[in-house]
UniProtKB/TrEMBL annotation:
PANTHER family: UDP-ARABINOSE 4-EPIMERASE 1 (PTHR43725:SF53), UDP-GLUCOSE 4-EPIMERASE (PTHR43725)
Organism: Nitrosopumilus oxyclinae
Domain of life: Archaea
Entry-linked Pfam families: Epimerase (PF01370)
Family: Belongs to the NAD(P)-dependent epimerase/dehydratase family.
Record-annotated NAD-dependent epimerase/dehydratase domain positions: 4-234
Coiled coil: none
Origin organism lineage: Archaea, Nitrososphaerota, Nitrososphaeria, Nitrosopumilales, Nitrosopumilaceae
Protein name: NAD-dependent epimerase
Transmembrane segments: none
Record-linked InterPro entries: Epimerase_deHydtase, NAD(P)-bd_dom_sf
């Protein structure tokens, strides 16, 4: 089969591309390369068709999508701090661009699996978070992702098969600092023999999930008979940022200590996924533990 991946040269998109190729599918990547990098697909370039293109260019996308069997929509701007400064840009790319994909999916009757985010929930008083929790995003990035979900519901009601995956804290090789990149930041600091800097007191928790497991969730969603849902993609295991920093120090074997700094604006206190629905609807569960996933950074 032939699939289109928007943002396919980016962190998560490139891992989806590799999984598809390893399953002998054909892959067309749509990316404007503002954030995506060809080196993310090193060794796979000859097996991929690249289209340097912006998702805001509706007409140019038509032929590419009409000639596909499905769309993995990963293209987005993802930096929470940056979203406060560039609200209009984030709305255009993340909302207007996403509606372009949904429009074409309707026109050509294609299934879409797309990147939503746990940021749609905002700060919750209870964890783990199930998909029916209230949606109260606390930053402009999260607002764009909630707007996308409203569009997904609208276009599903018009007949489009759409699954939105609410990623929790995705990590892995190829990750950049602007994509919830606390692990990348810690690694860079430790690699320079510097103490990892934890914002706040470090008690805030995250649900870290390997990009390999996230890529598998995308493929299972496309293959599934489910025509519409929003699914949490995490591990269901809480890890405090202090625990994360200490684990990375331990794996590095370096005699470093954690340092603390002021907590930035728009940061969620606790984030933990309930993943029952993903298990039920697409038969997905995570395979890679945080410790095993982090070993790839150091060994």
């Amino acid at each position: 089969m032939k699939f289109v991946i928007t943002g396919g040269a980016g962190f998560i998109g490139s891992h989806i591309a590799k999984h598809l190729i390893n399953k002998n599918h054909k892959v067309t990547i749509v990316d404007n390369f503002s954030r995506g990098r060809l080196e993310n697909l090193s060794g796979f370039e000859e097996k991929i068709e690249f289209q340097k293109m912006d998702i805001l260019n509706l007409d140019s996308l038509k032929k590419i999508i009409s000639d596909s069997d499905g769309i993995f929509h990963q293209a987005a701007l993802t930096s929470v701090p940056e979203s406060f400064i560039q609200k209009e840009k984030y709305h255009n790319v993340n909302v207007v661009g996403t509606e372009n994909i949904f429009k074409l999916a309707k026109e050509f009757e294609k299934k879409v699996v797309y990147a939503s985010s746990s940021s749609v929930y905002g700060n919750t008083s209870v964890t783990p978070i199930t998909e029916d929790f209230d949606k109260n995003p606390i930053n402009p990035y999260g607002i764009t992702k909630l707007d996308d979900e409203k569009l997904a519901k609208k276009y599903h009601d018009l007949g489009v098969s759409i699954i939105g995956l609410r990623y929790f804290n995705v990590y892995g090789i190829g990750q950049t600092n602007d994509y919830a990149g606390v692990i990348t930041k810690f690694f860079d600091q430790i690699n320079l023999d510097q103490s990892p800097i934890v914002f706040g007191d470090g008690s805030h928790t995250r649900d870290f999930v390997s990009v390999e497991d996230v890529a598998k969730a995308n493929l299972l969603s496309m293959e599934s008979t489910t025509s519409f849902s929003f699914l949490n993609i995490g591990t269901g295991i809480p890890t405090s940022v202090n625990e994360l920093a200490q684990l990375m120090i331990n794996l590095s074997g370096k005699p470093l200590e954690i340092k603390h700094d002021e907590l930035p604006q728009g940061d969620v206190k606790e984030s933990l996924a309930d993943v029952f629905l993903a298990k039920k609807l697409i038969n997905w569960n995570y395979d890679i533990s945080l410790k095993d996933g982090l070993k790839k950074y150091f060994f």
